[in-house]
Structure formats: structure tokens, C-alpha cells
């Protein structure tokens, strides 16, 4: 409706203007040499309008002719961009499908059409990586780090390349660069933790760990390797705070206290730890400063008083009595340990030493040896380690004295000694 009204108004104005021009009286005469042109004023106005329209059309035509090369170039450029985008999309789909050959062909085509744009470089890098061409992938990822908004992806690719090649120092450098490019990435934190664990850099790993089991294990390892007593004490406190009943942490804390000449506090810590959860590591730390067998037997008796009747207390009394040649006490406590539920090899070894018969030797060899077992991959070691030597995870080593005891270990109590 509005358009119709506007059309009528414009038509009315034009008709009124034409009528007015047509009513203008007079003539117009033009001389050019021997030629004379004479016409009415309305006809002269009409001729003038036609000339203006013709000149306008000529000027526009000349402008189009001048802009034609640029237009053709722009058309060709847009066509290249469209073809490059299609090749890029085809390459990304091929990557997702695991088609290395198609992805790499699309990367070559898109690079030819679009140049080294960030997405093209990413496609080239990932397709080369999928095709088993690590050097090409490395070069593309390196070029990608030069783009500010995509630098994270470049360093991420170089980090993975370094990890796969076993170069953990270079991987750590790219991890820090990636952190600068995109702070707070959860994926990157996991990668940095894995790199620190592979390098056995306990302090760096501790700063990245979040699970209590990881913190306790890494802090204990950091305390054990600390050169100064104050540092060892700080890390050991962190370990015990994360897992109060963790025997390696208790032993490390006592050792740190001794480094700072706080022997009474160390002794109190070990006694308290044994009372809460007796473990051979606590006993070893407690008896470390006693040299003679008799002194060790007496110290063992003092420690065992905090957890009387427990299997580990009876075993400790048996072992120290055997070393002190108190054979009667050694046999009595070994039998008491077995009756208390300790079915691993240690009490049977004591009995076999006291009565070396085929029966006792067979019982000692048939019983399972106590061990540390990884809760993640089930790898076994005789000594505690903060990091599993097989799967490389931290805080997964569990103390196992027998199959039945191992079955009782739950995720929530994974750090508590099973025996």
C-alpha cells in the first residue's frame, strides 16, 4: 500500500513538472557556423535531459571498463577462497575419520589455495602426524606457534611430539609456553603433571597434583630427597596432612625431624604412627638409631606397646628377638603373629630359621611375600615408590601382606597400610 501511494505521488509530480515545462512560452535559437537550430523551450529542455542521460551512461560504462580487471581478480580470489575452504573442510572430516591420505591431500590443496593460514597449518600438522611423518608435523606446528591466537595449538602439538620422542625436557618447555598462550587449561595441567612424573621432578609434580593420594606420595618423595631439613619437614607435613595414616609419610616426617635435631618429636611421631597403623617402614625408622640386637629388641618392645597384639607388633618382636638370639621369644611372637592373622612369608621365615625342617621351609616358601602393588596396573615392587615404575602414576602403590588383606583395601583407604 505504501509503495503504491509513493508511486502515485512521484508520477503526479513528474506529470506536473512536464505540464509546466510544456506551457513555457518562447523559442530557443542556437548558431554554429553556417548552421542555425531553432526550437521551442520545452523541446530544448527535453534535448538537454537526453544529453545528460547519455553522458551519465557513457561515464558509468567507462568506469565499469576501468574496474573490470579488478573485478575479475576479485572473482578469481573469491573462487580460490571458496575452493580452499572446501578443501579445508574435506581435510578436517578426513582427519576425524582417520583417513590419513585424504587428509594430507586436502592439506596440500588448501595450503596451495589459502596459503599458511592457522587452520591450514593445523590441518597440515595433524595430517602429517596421522600419516607417520613427524618431522613435517613438527615443522607445521612450529609455524603455527607464530600465530598469536593459535600459538597454544602449536605448542600443544610440539609438546606431544616431544613426549612421543621421549624428550621430556623439550616437552616441559613447550608446556610452559602453552600455559602462557592459554592459561588455566585442564588438559595442559594433566600433561605437565605427566611430564614432571616422567622426569621424577617431585616438586614440580607436587605443585600440579590435586588428588590426596598423589599429593601424599609426591610430598613424601620430595621430603626424602630434600637437601635441607626445613624443606624436608615442610614436604613431610604436607604429605601427612593429605594422608594422616600413610606410613611412608610418617617415616619421612620422623626423618625430617631428626635432620632438624628434634629426636624426641621424631620418636613421638613414630610411636603415634605405629599405634594408628603398624607398618614395617615405621619400625625401620624407629630402630634406625639402635645398633646392637639387644637394644633393637628393647626398642621394638617399646614400639609394640603402642599396638599390643597386632600382627605387625608380634612380627616385629619375633624378628628382633631372633636377631638378639632370644629364640623362645622369637618363636612365641611368630606364632602369635600368625594367630593374629598375618599369613605372609615373614613369620614362617622366622619359624624356619628356628627349626630348619622341610616342613617349615615349605611353609615359608609357600606363603606370599609382602609387597607394594600398584592399584592402577597391579605392578609389584618390594620397596615403596612414589611413582609406579610400570604405569608411571603417582600415589597408587598399596601395601599388601596377603591376598585376603589386599581385597580389603578400598579406594577411600588406599593410602592406609593393608597390614
Could you characterize the architecture of this molecule?
- With 419 residues, this protein is mainly alpha-helical.
- Among the domains are: 81-144; 146-199, no CATH class.
- 69% of the residues lie in helices and 5% in strands.
- The strands form two sheets. Strands 4-3-5 form a three-stranded antiparallel beta sheet.
The rounded distance between the terminal residues' Cα atoms is 93 Å
How do the helices and strands follow one another from N- to C-terminus? Answer: HEEHHHHHHHHHHHHHHHHHHEEEH
Low-confidence stretches: 404-419
Tell me how many strands there are: 5
Largest sheet: 3 strands, antiparallel
Estimate what percentage of residues fall within beta strands.
Answer: 5-15%
Average pLDDT confidence is 84
Shape: rod-shaped
Class by SSE composition: mainly alpha
Numbering strands along the chain, what is their spatial order in the largest sheet? 4-3-5
Count helical runs: 20
- Rg on CA atoms, Å: 44 Å
Helicity, in percent? 55-70%
Amino acid at each position: 500500500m505504501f509503495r503504491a501511494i509513493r508511486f502515485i505521488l512521484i508520477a503526479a509530480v513528474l506529470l506536473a513538472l512536464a505540464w509546466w515545462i510544456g506551457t513555457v512560452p518562447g523559442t530557443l535559437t542556437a548558431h554554429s557556423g553556417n548552421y542555425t537550430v531553432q526550437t521551442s523551450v520545452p523541446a530544448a529542455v527535453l534535448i538537454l535531459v537526453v544529453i545528460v542521460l547519455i553522458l551519465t551512461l557513457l561515464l558509468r560504462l567507462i568506469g565499469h571498463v576501468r574496474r573490470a580487471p579488478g573485478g575479475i581478480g576479485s572473482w578469481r580470489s573469491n573462487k580460490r577462497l571458496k575452493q580452499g575452504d572446501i578443501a579445508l573442510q574435506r581435510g578436517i572430516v578426513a582427519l576425524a575419520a582417520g583417513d590419513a591420505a585424504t587428509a594430507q591431500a586436502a592439506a596440500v590443496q588448501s595450503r596451495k589455495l589459502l596459503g599458511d593460514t592457522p587452520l591450514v597449518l593445523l590441518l597440515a600438522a595433524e595430517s602429517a602426524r596421522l600419516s607417520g611423518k613427524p618431522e613435517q608435523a613438527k615443522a607445521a606446528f612450529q609455524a603455527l606457534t607464530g600465530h598469536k591466537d593459535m600459538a597454544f595449538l602449536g605448542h600443544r602439538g610440539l609438546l606431544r611430539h616431544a613426549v612421543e620422542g621421549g624428550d621430556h625436557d623439550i616437552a616441559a618447555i613447550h608446556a610452559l609456553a602453552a600455559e602462557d598462550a592459554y592459561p588455566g587449561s585442564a588438559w595442559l595441567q594433566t600433561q605437565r603433571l605427566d611430564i614432571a612424573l616422567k622426569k621424577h621432578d617431585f616438586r614440580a609434580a607436587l605443585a600440579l597434583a590435586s588428588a590426596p593420594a598423589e599429593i601424599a606420595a609426591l610430598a613424601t618423595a620430595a621430603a626424602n630427597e630434600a637437601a635441607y631439613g626445613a624443606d624436608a619437614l615442610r614436604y613431610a607435613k604436607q604429605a601427612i596432612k593429605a594422608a594422616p595414616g600413610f606410613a611412608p609419610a610418617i617415616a619421612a616426617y620422623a626423618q625430617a625431624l631428626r635432620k632438624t635435631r628434634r629426636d624426641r618429636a621424631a620418636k613421638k611421631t613414630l610411636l603415634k604412627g605405629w599405634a594408628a597403623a603398624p607398618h614395617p617402614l615405621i619400625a625401620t625408622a624407629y630402630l634406625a638409631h639402635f645398633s646392637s640386637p639387644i637394644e633393637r629388641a628393647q626398642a621394638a618392645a617399646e614400639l609394640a606397646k603402642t599396638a599390643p597384639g597386632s600382627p605387625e607388633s608380634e612380627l616385629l618382636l619375633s624378628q628382633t628377638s631372633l636377631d638378639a638370639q632370644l629364640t623362645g621369644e622369637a618363636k612365641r611372637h611368630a606364632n602369635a603373629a600368625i594367630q593374629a592373622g598375618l599369613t605372609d612369608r615373614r613369620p614362617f621365615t622366622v619359624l624356619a630359621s628356628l627349626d630348619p625342617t622341610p616342613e617349615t621351609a615349605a611353609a615359608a616358601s609357600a606363603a606370599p611375600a609382602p609387597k607394594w602393588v600398584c592399584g592402577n596396573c597391579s605392578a609389584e615392587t618390594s620397596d615403596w615408590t612414589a611413582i609406579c615404575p610400570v604405569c608411571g602414576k603417582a600415589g597408587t602403590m598399596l601395601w599388601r601382606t596377603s591376598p585376603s588383606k589386599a581385597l580389603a583395601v578400598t579406594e577411600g583407604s588406599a593410602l592406609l597400610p593393608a597390614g
